# Entry
Amino acid sequence: MAARTFSHDPISFGRMPPAIKGLIIANIAVFAVASLVGPKFYDLFGLVPQHVIADRWVWQPVSYLFVHGGLMHLLFNLFALWMFGMPVESQWGSLEFLKFYFICGLGAAAAQIALAPHSMVPVIGASGPIYGLLVAFAMLYPDAVVYLYFLIPVKASHMAILFGLVEFFAGTTGATPGIARFAHLGGMVTGYIYIRWWWIIKVRSKAFFQQLARAPSAIAPPRPRPARKPLERAPEEAAPKPEEPMAEIDRILDKILVSGLDSLTDEERRIMQRYSDRMKH
# Structure
């Protein structure tokens, strides 16, 4: 049950995990192509709600994540992807990280389409999943200190709440009409729901079916065994440890999902190690 490790120093492309590295390459490549093609590219591959609904341009809820409007827009999103994505991918692994990233992107797209279904203005950028990663980072490392705007120290959990409130009020007041605030908020809400409920339900369901598969069949009667003399246990042989109840396993799994592996006590790590050994056998 050893935790994966990550490092933020120095910023080395070679040391980045594969999912973040792939996303950075894809975003840079699409930005280069968009710069050559021109405005038509944004209409084709940005998120245009009217095209998605009326014209069935079903690729746009995914393709818009890789399209950016300018160099600073691209660099800011890639920096946030590196900053919040490194620890999240180190905890979850690349496959689960990518799944979460695109689910948050789809949630952001769904929020934008639901609120402006007839809009012809392209929505572009990876900000939706980036805000989802902010939520994931805050749930895994709630007490981590982040320097807001490189100056103000704030806990990750407080920063996520602050950003959520800013996006909500900016969206409802229309203070920044050029920014899809509710798409950002949709990414945050999707990420929170996925971590807080769906992932826990998935883990518990998997544990339930594994336990069900290990249970003896209640239909087939047991075969009679010939009587034999009971074996005497040696005095020094220790009795086998009873299996931990699934309720305790579920509690520890919930703790890992919310707070990360580093939050486990030594006893909880031993329990999960015994549980992991039983799964292998």
The beta strands are 145-148, 152-155. The chain has two domains: 13-196, 244-281. Residues 13-196 form a domain with the Rhomboid-like fold fold (CATH 1.20.1540.10).
